[in-house]
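Collaborator request, handled under Task 6.
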Amino acid sequence: MTVKSAYIHIPFCVRICTYCDFNKYFIDKQPVDEYLDALIKEMQVENNRKLETMYVGGGTPTALNIVQLEKLLKAINNTFTIHGEYSFEANPDELTYEKVALLKKYGVNRISMGVQTFKPELLEILGRTHKTNDIYSAVNNARKAGINSISLDLMYHLPQQSLEDFKQSLELALEMDIDHISSYGLILEPKTQFYNMYRKGHLKLPNEDLGADMYQYLMKRLEDSNLNQYEISNFGKKGHESTHNKVYWLNEEYYGFGAGASGYVDGVRYTNLNPVNHYIKAIYNNEEPILTKNTPTFEERMEEEMFLGLRMNQGVSISRFKRKFGINIEEVFGQTITDLINRNLLENKCGYISLTERGKVIGNEVFEAFLLNV
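Structure tokens returned to the collaborator:
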């Protein structure tokens, strides 16, 4: 299988958000230039130069200064030819016109902005550095520079967030005629500030029913807009769906570059070393900067095909499953599928197994049903 996608991780942030559990470090006094040198060296090891998608995430790639950003962009262009979607994550207050024009110059055609909410009080609770006005400025800068697709991340089920708060953020995003929205409910992850606050009784979350109400409102409201749901948490105008993320959901292979990045190449899933200094040291010692490697079994690959593919509105293709694994989907998961259809969580339609609206609300419960050895 030819690897057609790559993810690059920039693990630096100007401020650490209260809810974030990604591999990230406060950028001040970090060896950023040495990290970029190591990252470039890791990328150049790969022989496959032609890619269909590239995604640069973090951390926050736009936390890099303009010189560092150009150094990274030049290295990517010197190493790979990207034929399709080229995405960069950005914080609204860091997306100056100078930076977004630089991204455009080097071929970036999609920006994913970590907006999370338009409400100032909630931005403060989340530890975000931007203000509401920065969102409008960043979108205007991206449009002025000629970026083809602009996506906003919005969160729901946040501490002190009401349904009306979430509705308002959604409406403000829609008024901007955004191309794509990714919207996720808050999950308390270990090692985050929120998790520690919750354990100490200093954080109160909305109840689960309110979170479900917010999600159902999200689906209904965007169904009435020109943003079509194509995955559990993702909505886009026609032609603006994230082709990079579809690589993950279709269980296809991709490179992962940078500290803490994950990849899937030649049937092996791997995760790179997390600490920046450990990653840099491994690269300069000409060692693989890999922390873990795992080759999924045949059963595990079939499980992954189901719980990743079911995230998409289209669902899992019955014929593709047969071509990929040489076995009918019913022989492996027939009883599970039947049980979930009877519970109105799945449907079998037009050659695809997919989630119903009710199934989307409790998606994790559905996904767990496809773990064969649990």
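The cover message to the collaborator said: "Residues 3-248 form a domain with the pyruvate-formate lyase- activating enzyme fold (CATH 3.80.30.20). DSSP finds 15 helices and 17 strands in the chain. Please let us know whether this matches your experimental observations."
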